[in-house]
UniProtKB/TrEMBL annotation:
Compartment(s): Cell membrane
Keyword tags: ATP-binding, Cell membrane, Disulfide bond, Glycoprotein, Ion channel, Ion transport, Ligand-gated ion channel, Membrane, Nucleotide-binding, Transmembrane, Transmembrane helix, Transport
Glycosites: 166
Binding site for ATP: 71-73, 168, 272-274, 291
Domain of life: Eukaryota
Catalysed reactions, as listed in the record: K(+)(in) = K(+)(out); Na(+)(in) = Na(+)(out); Ca(2+)(in) = Ca(2+)(out)
GO biological process, one term: calcium ion transmembrane transport
Segment forming the signal sequence: none
Protein name: P2X purinoceptor 2
Purpose of the protein: ATP-gated nonselective transmembrane cation channel permeable to potassium, sodium and calcium. Activation by extracellular ATP induces a variety of cellular responses, such as excitatory postsynaptic responses in sensory neurons, neuromuscular junctions (NMJ) formation, hearing, perception of taste and peristalsis. In the inner ear, regulates sound transduction and auditory neurotransmission, outer hair cell electromotility, inner ear gap junctions, and K(+) recycling. Mediates synaptic transmission between neurons and from neurons to smooth muscle.
Gene Ontology molecular-function annotations: ATP binding; extracellularly ATP-gated monoatomic cation channel activity; purinergic nucleotide receptor activity
Disulfide bonds: 115-148, 198-208, 242-251
Length: 331
């Protein structure tokens, strides 16, 4: 019983005790210089690296919501006709991916029937099992049933790229960052008729997104004549990196251009596609097969926006715990 009373009195007495850490002032100039230097380095780390370089006080969002509308204008000609935009742009809807035809190989007046096969590696129909004379010479080849004459046996090449470098391409882009409710476009506002009299210039006309096709190919480091003959894919990259610490007027698009398809792979270099035009002749279906070589434009939009974030209880806690000055205690 006495032990219990002694324990209770000890706890009651300890409850009213007050403790405070003992502070020792070390009068040592060398140790003081080291201590203050470490504090200064920690301060510089937070001010310069964390806040200025890394901008860790900001919140960010990548991958903006984006819409792209394109429109091509220009007239060109081949050996046999004049071509307008309705004929050489595929598809015509004006999206972020489209092709401008610069050369065609035409196989005219194809009808369903039988004819000599051109290449066993590129079958153009079903083999009938008969051996027939080739288109030229005394050699023979397999007969096929399909659209005749087959491609490459009677195709005619036409070049459309003579005037193509002067084609103009309007690339209208709007972006939206939903996290920060921030939106912007790449066309100058408040100037009536501005787009009718301008072309893109990075310094003087940044908000006139009208590019000449020759300019795009040149900026991608390609030879236009060579590219027009073989075809290829050019990427127009629009980058929106914005810092909302600054005015919205400082958030500007940055354009870059580069070739996207494997140029130096002979087996798959270039770009082409096929389509056909059908019509009736004396009650039978006839078609013109067109193998089109062209410059495909892919408009790619990406970016990141940064904005000051509200501080939280845990903001900077890991860095603070690691940043305690390592100064030895005196003995």
């Amino acid at each position: 019983m006495a032990a219990a009373e002694g324990l209770a009195q000890g706890c009651w007495s300890a409850f009213w005790d007050y403790e405070t850490p003992k502070v020792i002032v070390v009068k040592n100039r060398r140790l003081g210089v080291v201590y203050r230097a470490v504090q200064l380095l920690i301060l510089l780390y937070f001010v310069w690296y964390v806040f200025i370089v890394q901008k860790s006080y900001q919140d960010s969002e990548t991958g903006p919501e984006s819409s792209v509308i394109t429109k091509v204008k220009g007239i060109t000609s081949s050996e046999h006709k004049v071509w307008d935009v309705e004929e050489y742009v595929k598809p015509p809807e004006g999206g972020s991916v489209f092709s401008i035809i610069t050369r065609i190989e035409v196989t005219p007046s194809q009808t369903l029937g039988t004819c000599p096969e051109v290449s066993a590696l590129l079958p153009a129909g079903l083999r009938t099992g008969r051996c027939v004379p080739y288109y030229q010479g005394s050699a023979k080849t397999c007969e096929v049933s399909g659209w005749c004459p087959v491609e490459d046996g009677a195709s005619v090449s036409q070049f459309l790229g003579k005037m193509a470098p002067n084609f103009t391409i309007l690339i209208k882009n709007s972006i939206h960052y939903p996290k920060f409710q921030f939106s912007k476009g790449n066309i100058e506002h408040g100037k009536d008729g501005y787009l009718k009299h301008c072309t893109f210039d990075e310094v003087s006309d940044l908000y006139c997104p009208i590019f000449k096709l020759g300019f795009i190919v040149e900026q991608a480091g390609e030879n236009f004549t060579e590219l027009a003959h073989t075809g290829g894919v050019i990427g127009v990259i629009i980058n929106w990196d914005c810092d909302l610490d600054l005015s919205a007027s400082k958030c500007n698009p940055k354009y870059s251009f580069r070739r996207l398809d494997p140029k130096h792979v002979p087996a798959s270099s270039g770009y082409n596609f096929r389509f056909a035009k059908y019509y009736k002749t004396n009650g039978s279906t006839t078609r013109t097969l067109i193998k089109a070589y062209g410059i495909r434009i892919d408009v790619i939009v990406h970016g990141q926006v940064n904005q000051p974030a509200l501080p939280t209880r845990d903001s900077g806690r890991p860095r603070t715990e690691l940043a305690q000055p390592l100064v030895p205690h005196p003995p």
